[in-house]
Amino acid sequence: MEKRKNFWDKNAGRYDRFMHKDAAAYEQLYELLRPVVRHKQVLELATGTGLIAKNIVNAAAHIEATDASPEMIAQAKQGNCSAKLHFSVQDMFRLPYADRSFDVIIVSNALHIVPEPKKALSEIRRVLKDDGVLVAPTFTHADNAFFGKVKAFFMKLAGFPLHSKWTSNEYLAFLQENGWTVRESTVLKASFPLTYAECVKREEA
């Protein structure tokens, strides 16, 4: 956990510039998210500099936006003018919220960079209402062409914590195998294929 935090703390100041190349894909993502969060209590994990939260907060009732990196949260707090949006440093594996607290949980481009994505999904399941929605868009690196795979290799050499390299189908199967029903999915064109997954809890047998 500490190594990952250090990487993101170190790169917090340049994160928005790095993500600018995928601005078109993120605009599509915001359009998909707004109707899901409308008038809802929302938790965002791995918010980074708050790009998603700031672009959808007007639709939501309230957003708690969290990240493990203090430097990312410091960047996110800059320019936050919404009383409906609160940023804080939290560990997605040990969230301080009560069971079934949120209508919607967003974890964007994070499950492929955490060492224990199953554990993260378990904690998400705990704090999400039984009729709630998990939205988990994730870069699916294994779908990418040769150039993208080379790029991912050099990113990892630079310290980027890439733990899971899924294809889109593998990623959706991973969610389903871990207690979720994927009710909507699509792949957005970005620097790496971005698999949008909208899920609900699968009823346990």
Molecular structure report:
This protein has 205 residues and is α/β, with parallel strands linked by helices. The chain is 38% helix and 24% strand. The chain is built from eight helices and eight strands, in the order αααβαβαββαββααββ. It has helices spanning 2-11, 15-19, 23-37, 51-56, 70-77, 117-127, 146-157, 168-177, and strands at residues 41-45, 62-67, 85-89, 102-107, 128-135, 138-139, 180-188, 194-201. Strands 1, 2, 3, 4, 5, 6, 7 and 8 form an eight-stranded mixed sheet that branches. The protein is globular. The N and C termini lie far apart (33 Å). Mean pLDDT is 85; it is low at 1-5 and 157-161.
Quick structural summary:
Helix content is 38%, strand content 24%. The chain has 205 residues and is an alpha/beta fold. Strands 1, 2, 3, 4, 5, 6, 7 and 8 form an 8-stranded mixed β-sheet that branches.
Using the alpha-carbon principal axes, give the shape.
Answer: globular
Helix coverage percent of residues? 25-40%
The fraction of residues in strands falls at 15-25%
Over the alpha carbons, how many angstroms does the gyration radius reach? Answer: 16 Å
Structural class: alpha/beta
Q: Number of helical runs?
A: 8
Number of strands: 8
> Could you state the order of secondary-structure elements as H and E?
HHHEHEHEEHEEHHEE
Mean pLDDT: 85
Main pleated-sheet profile: 8 strands, mixed
The CA-CA distance between the termini, in Å, is: 33 Å
- As residue ranges, the low-confidence spans are 1-5, 157-161
